[in-house]
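To: structure desk
From: M.T.
Subject: fold request, one chain
Message: Could you run this one when you get a chance? Sequence is below, nothing fancy, just the single chain.
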Amino acid sequence: MSEKSKGVYIVGITGASGAIYGVRLVQELLRQSYKVHLILTEAAWRVFKEELLLDTTDRDTVIEDLFGQHEGMLYTHHLYDYGAPIASGSYQNDGMIIIPCSMGTLSGIATGASGNLIERTADVMLKEERKLILVPRETPLNQLHLENMLRVSKVGAKILPAMPGFYHQPQSMDDLINFLVGKALDSLGVDHKLFARWGGGQ
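Reply: Done. Structure tokens follow.
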């Protein structure tokens, strides 16, 4: 672990709507000097193009534009690189979050398919009893979606739906994004000031 790193987190971004949640989370982790291992699905890159209006022709440039230069702090992994350190339970880390998490990825995790590096790493988190946070973004939910959420919840994952709150009186899209990302950071155990907490003055 880098001497400058406060900890190590693994972040998966899939093709569900809400790519900005994953981007903002990684930005905040890096800003706070956490080491990040990042995995993106092919569908995530499509969402980057459609939702964030990014030219994804040069993916390395996209990563640098979004997150800056963080040598020794940000590691990106190919979706099928099973030789990545995070694919092994022997690699020490503080947990994993998939934000947003597509229903396809959720299904792969629920069945133990390990069909790509995100699913494999999630399986490692479960077997090693480390933090695994899934942020599904789908509506409406069918019975399979709900059953898969229950299955992963029963074996140790935490389900954090991408549902924004309004009690903090959001004034902008950024406020809504930061609320959800803040809740995700809470679940990871990472301190932040992305939103005003209820009763925060007490």
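Reply (cont.): The domain at 8-188 is CATH 3.40.50.1950 (Rossmann fold). Let me know if you need anything else for the meeting.
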